[in-house]
């Protein structure tokens, strides 16, 4: 079985599946312990860790027709960026920009997520 963090693409694919299935344990595995999430939601700027995102997923249905689309993944050595667009996540759509790092054991983690909803 391939690890969900074996590459930047596998990590963002696992993010989509973890979000779709509200699999908080998987999502926590994907984010680095020091990860930050920053972005705009309903006109308010949010800056912090992924904890509030996990709580929203625990408390609410994702959306009947949720989709996540990987728009791009660019890897340079042990860093990567990715764009993932989501529709019908908790009733709204998002454009997400991820920064990922390869940690010492060779696996990849999301170190930051920059988002906006539309």
Short description:
InterPro entries: FrzH/put_lumazine-bd, NTF2-like_dom_sf. This is Nuclear transport factor 2 family protein. This protein is α+β, with helices and mostly antiparallel strands and 118 residues long.
What does this 3D model show about the protein?
This is Nuclear transport factor 2 family protein. It comes from Sedimentitalea arenosa. The protein is α+β, with helices and mostly antiparallel strands. It has one domain (8-117): Roll (Nuclear Transport Factor 2, Chain: A). The chain is 25% helix and 49% strand. It has helices spanning 8-20, 24-30, 51-59, and strands spanning 31-41, 44-48, 67-76, 79-89, 92-102, 108-117. A hairpin with a 5-residue loop joins strand 5 and strand 6. The model has no long low-confidence stretch (mean pLDDT 95).
What is this structure's SSE topology?
Layout: H1 8-20, H2 24-30, E1 31-41, E2 44-48, H3 51-59, E3 67-76, E4 79-89, E5 92-102, E6 108-117
Parallel strand pairs: 1-6
Antiparallel strand pairs: 1-2, 3-4, 4-5, 5-6
Helix pairs in contact: 1-2
User: Rg, please?
Assistant: 13 Å
Individual helix count: 3
CATH class: Alpha Beta
Order of helices and strands: HHEEHEEEE
Shape: globular
Oligomeric state of the chains present here: single chain
Average pLDDT, all residues:
95
Strand content: over 45%
CATH architecture: Roll
* Helical fraction: 10-25%
What does the largest sheet look like?
A: 6 strands, mixed
The domain tally reads 1
CATH topology: Nuclear Transport Factor 2, Chain: A
The rounded distance between the terminal residues' Cα atoms is 36 Å
- Arrangement of strands in the largest sheet: 2-1-6-5-4-3
Alpha-beta classification:
alpha+beta
How many beta strands in the DSSP annotation?
Answer: 6
Pfam families: Lumazine_bd_2
Protein name: Nuclear transport factor 2 family protein
């Amino acid at each position: 079985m391939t690890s969900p963090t074996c590459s930047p693409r596998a990590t963002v694919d696992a993010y989509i599946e973890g979000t779709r299935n509200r699999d908080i344990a998987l999502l926590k595995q994907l984010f680095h312990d020091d990860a930050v999430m920053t972005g705009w939601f309903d006109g308010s700027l949010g800056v912090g860790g992924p904890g509030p995102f996990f709580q929203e997923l625990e408390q609410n249905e994702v959306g009947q027709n949720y989709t996540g689309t990987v728009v791009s993944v660019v890897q340079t050595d042990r860093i990567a960026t990715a764009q993932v667009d989501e529709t019908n996540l908790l009733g709204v759509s998002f454009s997400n920009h991820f920064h990922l790092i390869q940690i010492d054991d060779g696996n990849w983690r999301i170190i930051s997520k920059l988002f906006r909803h539309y």
